[in-house]
């Protein structure tokens, strides 16, 4: 089971319909403000109002208050709302407060979220068996959609994985591919219907 948050967690919502642009915005803001590399970065669908994506980011416990304040300010510049690192109200664009709070809570509880950055991510590259993928500790479970798999089934990650949190565990969803292998359900540069 993926451990609960240990460092400060922020929820970010700016009404982004483009999930990749949101990921880039958060990663660049973390880098530009001198914060340590994100421990976890997740995206979250927001279905209230105009459908869009929010993000959540967990930083190392050693991240200082000055760096956190700079990061929050940088994330609010394009008109976003930021929740955290404490349990107080969100700041920034009022219309996005609920999404920022929802994203933060989802990461804190590990109940939902599509992981863009996560511990051990680099160990899920190339082709590896399901048993090996689980042994890395990067994901807690592999769920096959439309395929029967066993520990020896090969996952061709294509060097791109986006596992999702479900009920406190990080799950890599896979689907059948050629030659009895499986591939991640989400592929790099995949077109998302409706976006």
Task: Walk me through this protein's architecture.
With 195 residues, the protein is an alpha+beta fold. Strands 5-4-1-3-2-6 form a six-stranded antiparallel β-sheet, sandwiched between helices. Strands 8, 10, 11 and 12 form a four-stranded mixed β-sheet that branches. A hairpin with a 2-residue loop joins β10 and β11. The longest helix has 14 residues. It starts with 8 loop residues before the first strand and ends in an 11-residue tail after the last strand.
Topology readout:
Blueprint lengths: L8 E8 L2 H14 L7 E7 L5 E7 L6 H12 L4 E3 L7 E2 L4 H13 L4 E4 L9 E3 H6 L5 E4 L9 E3 L7 E3 L2 E8 L5 E3 L11
Beta-strand proportion: 25-35%
What's the total count of β strands? 12
Please list the strands of the largest sheet in the order they lie side by side.
5-4-1-3-2-6
SSE topology string: EHEEHEEHEEHEEEEE
Major pleated sheet: 6 strands, antiparallel
Helical residues, percent: 10-25%
What structural category do the secondary elements indicate? alpha+beta
Report the end-to-end length measured between terminal Cα atoms.
32 Å
Mean pLDDT across residues: 91
| SS element count, helices | 4
The radius of gyration over CA amounts to 17 Å
The shape is: elongated
Low-confidence regions: none
């Amino acid at each position: 089971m993926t451990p609960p948050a240990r460092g400060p967690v922020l929820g970010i919502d700016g009404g982004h319909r483009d999930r990749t642009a949101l990921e880039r915005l958060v990663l660049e803001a973390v880098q530009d403000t001198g914060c340590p590399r994100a421990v976890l970065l997740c995206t979250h669908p927001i279905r209230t109002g105009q459908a869009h994506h929010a993000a959540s980011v967990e930083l190392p416990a050693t991240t200082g208050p000055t760096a956190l304040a700079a990061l929050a300010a940088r994330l609010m510049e394009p008109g976003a709302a930021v929740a955290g690192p404490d349990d107080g109200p969100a700041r920034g664009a009022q219309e996005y407060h609920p999404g920022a709070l929802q994203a933060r809570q989802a990461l804190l509880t590990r109940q939902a979220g599509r992981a863009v950055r996560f511990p051990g991510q680099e160990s899920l590259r190339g082709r590896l068996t399901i048993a090996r993928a689980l042994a890395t500790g990067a994901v807690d479970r592999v769920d096959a959609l439309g395929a029967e798999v066993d520990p020896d089934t090969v996952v061709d990650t294509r060097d791109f994985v986006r596992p999702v949190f479900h009920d406190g565990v990080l799950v890599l969803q896979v689907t059948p591919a050629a030659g009895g292998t499986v591939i991640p359900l989400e592929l790099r540069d995949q077109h998302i219907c409706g976006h």
